[in-house]
């Protein structure tokens, strides 16, 4: 099925998110749509999927103009969408989520759960997924939840399939597997629109590339274009793709973690006897495939984990067993791996989110009263400093792109006086321009003498940022190595092997 968008325009008040955008997606081809966060990519796809109504323009399928009043119309026409932010019900099983909105019933009028289970199993077998149809979605790791989203779209036999940042929460291995699946779908005749910020992915699978910036199409690119060329088209300026950092000026030991063990609700050790130290003015990166204890490690440091033993100290003061409030007040800044669930309150404004850590006292609250002028000035200046792009500080966080949401979290945490900065997946799902900005701020934080702990499943990011690398596998530290350790060696360690010459 051929898809054509003609002069699609979508406005939100004074903001024109899409400005006369046109593109054509052909059957059997992968059409990559790239641009900065806030460029209008997701808005355009939401128009295509019937979630928004265009103010101007037309959607055509096989030369026939379509009128979508909602997603149901788009799906009925053969369009499927894998959303950047999951559209799943956590308390439902995988099968229940897949059948939601397309429920089948037995002759007795009961929901045919068995048919939904079989559908999940069939799609999983077809594309190499390993998904338990009876698992509760809320109990699944983030990467597996993303696969459920993909199964939902594939189960509808969509002829046009939209992938909106589908790899934002996937491990490198899962991403490679998804690339294979996308190629299989393309070869079967599906027209695919692929939105991503990761230039390697664009060059790996795209047949056609459209670049949009500030809501307008600024050009078409060839898959043979270099990363530098694509980045410059996306951002509108030269982008530094390599992290610029000098030698670390190391101070005394700051964060000391000794024999840390974290048990899950079943009593299994998800962090098992972990010990490491971060010195002042040093970036230590935790590398590993997601799901090997990194999340639980950061939660233990922040006082969010239960059933924790061992010791965690910062500048000689114990953090273990302290409340989250105490740890934040002790000068620990934290960027959680899931910004929408744990980093922001979507219904709060930008200004309100920027004061979340300091809502109990000066400078924003005095004698129980909000100091609105102080907050307005701070939010305005901080938003400008961190290049948060919005209609103003009264915009709801949920209305912003992923990159701008991430900038709010960073702005809030880095605008405090810190003694330790912990960043989990700091660039997940954001564009190359925002990644450049985030990396610069992390390096600046390190250069100001603050110890930094970064957890990332992106090996390129780990190698670029780290002064030392801690590799974790199944809750244990496989080794602690210098930043110049070859990628092949790091890959072996991430798989649980200890190469010769590496201390376990």
Automatic annotation (TrEMBL):
One molecular function GO term is:
ATP hydrolysis activity
Recite the UniProt keywords alphabetically. Answer: ATP-binding, Cell membrane, Hydrolase, Membrane, Nucleotide-binding, Repeat, Translocase, Transport
Per the UniProt entry, the Enzyme Commission number(s) are: 3.6.3.17
Q: Does the keyword Transcription regulation apply?
A: no
State the Pfam families in the record.
Answer: ABC_tran
Lineage, top-rank taxon, reads Bacteria
Q: Which InterPro entries match?
A: AAA+_ATPase (IPR003593), ABC_carbohydrate_import_ATPase (IPR050107), ABC_transporter-like_ATP-bd (IPR003439), ABC_transporter-like_CS (IPR017871), P-loop_NTPase (IPR027417)
Provide the ABC transporter domain boundaries: 3-239, 255-499
Primary localization: membrane
PROSITE patterns from the entry?
ABC_TRANSPORTER_1 (PS00211), ABC_TRANSPORTER_2 (PS50893)
- Looking at its record, which EC class is this enzyme? hydrolase
- The answer to whether keyword DNA repair applies is no
Its placement in the membrane is given as: Peripheral membrane protein
Localization terms from the record: Cell membrane
GO CC terms on record? plasma membrane
Name of the featured protein: Ribose import ATP-binding protein RbsA
**Which organism is this entry from?**
Aurantimicrobium photophilum
The uppermost taxa in this organism's lineage are:
Bacteria, Bacillati, Actinomycetota, Actinomycetes, Micrococcales
């Amino acid at each position: 099925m051929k898809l054509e968008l003609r002069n699609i325009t979508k406005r939100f008040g004074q903001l024109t998110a899409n400005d006369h955008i046109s593109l054509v997606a052909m059957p059997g081809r992968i059409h990559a749509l790239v641009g900065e966060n806030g460029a209008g990519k997701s808005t355009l796809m939401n128009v295509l999927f019937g979630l928004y109504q265009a103010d101007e323009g037309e959607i055509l399928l096989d030369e026939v103009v379509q009128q979508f009043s909602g997603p149901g119309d788009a799906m009925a026409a053969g369009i499927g969408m894998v959303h950047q932010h999951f559209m799943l019900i956590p308390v439902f099983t995988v099968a229940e989520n897949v059948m939601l909105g397309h429920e089948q019933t037995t002759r007795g009028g009961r929901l045919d759960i068995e048919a939904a289970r079989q559908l999940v199993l069939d799609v999983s077998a077809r594309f190499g997924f390993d998904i338990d149809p009876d698992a509760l979605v809320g109990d699944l790791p983030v990467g597996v939840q993303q696969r459920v989203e993909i199964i939902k779209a594939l189960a509808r036999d969509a002829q046009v399939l939209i992938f909106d940042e589908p790899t934002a929460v996937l491990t490198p291995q899962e991403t490679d597997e998804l690339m294979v699946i996308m190629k299989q779908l393309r070869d079967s005749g599906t027209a695919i629109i692929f939105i991503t910020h990761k230039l390697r992915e664009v060059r790996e699978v795209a047949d056609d590339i459209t670049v949009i910036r500030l809501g307008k199409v600024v050009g078409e690119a060839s898959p043979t274009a270099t990363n530098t060329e694509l980045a410059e088209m996306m951002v509108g300026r030269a982008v530094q793709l390599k992290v610029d950092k000098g030698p670390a000026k190391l101070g005394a030991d700051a964060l000391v973690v000794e024999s840390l063990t974290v048990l899950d609700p079943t009593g299994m050790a998800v962090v098992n006897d972990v010990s490491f130290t971060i010195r002042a003015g040093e970036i230590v990166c935790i590398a590993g495939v997601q799901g090997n204890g990194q999340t639980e490690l950061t939660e233990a440091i922040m006082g969010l984990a239960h059933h924790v033993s061992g010791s965690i100290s910062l500048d000689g003061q114990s953090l273990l067993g302290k409340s989250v409030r105490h740890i934040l007040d002790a000068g620990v800044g934290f960027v959680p791996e899931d910004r929408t669930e744990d980093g922001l309150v979507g219904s709060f404004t930008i200004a309100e989110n920027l004061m979340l850590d300091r809502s109990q006292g000066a400078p924003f609250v005095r004698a129980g009263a909000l100091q609105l002028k102080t907050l307005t000035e701070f939010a305005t200046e901080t938003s400008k400093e961190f290049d948060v792009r919005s209609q103003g500080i009264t915009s709801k966080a949920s209305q912003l792109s992923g990159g701008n949401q991430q900038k709010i979290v960073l702005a809030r945490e880095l605008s405090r006086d810190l003694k330790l900065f912990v960043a989990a997946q700091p660039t997940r799902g954001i564009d190359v321009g925002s990644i450049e900005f985030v990396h610069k701020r992390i390096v600046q934080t390190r250069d100001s003498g603050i110890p930094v702990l970064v957890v990332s499943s992106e090996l390129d990011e780990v190698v670029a940022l780290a002064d030392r690398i801690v590799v974790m596998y199944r809750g244990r530290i496989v080794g602690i190595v210098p930043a110049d350790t070859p990628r092949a060696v790091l890959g072996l360690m991430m798989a649980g092997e200890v190469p010769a010459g590496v201390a376990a």
